Amino acid sequence: MRFFPSFFPPKMMRTGLFLASLLFAVPIHATNWHIAGKIEVPMLDDFSGYPKVLVQLISGGVWNSECGETLAEADGKFSLTCPSPWNWFSVKHLAVYHRFDDGVCKLNWFADISLDDGQTFKIDDSTKYRLTTKIALRIFIETLTILNLKK
């Protein structure tokens, strides 16, 4: 005697149960991530005369992926809204690319940030890295991810 109704073949029933369990295992997430803040550089009130400052919101975890990017205004303020990626670990990073030091492209990495408005991100030597190519950047981000997982 069968426990399940006979109009579902056993193989189809197993497949259906598997797909249903996957559907319920998907984490619930917000539709958008939003952050607004200010980039602060010591001894520099205005970014006029400097190349634009690029701000990226990064979804962290096992690997890093870009959620969105924007350019900071001359006074350092920025606002960024992007569709939230699937993020099992709920880790968010902020990457700030600038050329304040003799025109050399540098990255300031702010790890494990919260998505609050009005935050100030200070550009200093503790978060600064020199970048020469996009390949170096990708290797750098992957290395940071591996180091964060070891902690």
TrEMBL record:
Keywords: Signal. The keyword Signal applies. It comes from the Eukaryota. Residues 1-30 form the signal peptide. This is Exported protein. It comes from Bursaphelenchus xylophilus.
